[in-house]
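Action item from last week, closing it out:
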Amino acid sequence: CRYFDDLADENPNDQSEKLKSEFEQICNNTEHPINKFFKKHNIPIQILGDLIKGLVRDQKLVRIQTERDLIEYSYQVAGTVGLMMQPLIMVNNKQANKHAIDLGIAMQLTNIARDIYEDAHMNRVYLPKMWLSDISVEHLKSASIYAIQPQMNKILKKLIGLSEIYYQNGFSGMKY
């Protein structure tokens, strides 16, 4: 995960094809160390493919349209990590999958809340467009950020509230 995340961050404007190509090489080579690791730990390689889809999304101008898109993206870049971690911490019950995914989603939503303004400076807006109404990426980048603070406080509360739902479900899976 770290390898692909670093690869995506090397030059975020043109790594999409490299990410896809690297993943394809892993899938087609049963002797590749990553492929062998996934097989050894019984982790479906497609979970890594889902992570890469999320990293590819970050390669272009990011504008999340709906809450559903936000959750899908969060699954891709963090819920997948939860799924990959399960065998490594010896959780083999398939009923734990949803909880692992939800804990990853919750953590990603928290990261998004933390990095709203930093992400905007990289032309990435992970908040659903429908939540932002008339707030633009330029507003998020500008020195007049204080003018939109009351609206942003409401959006942040909504985002943190959504993350709490996912945290609760994630933590309820700790029994596995």
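Closing note: DSSP finds ten helices and two strands in the chain.
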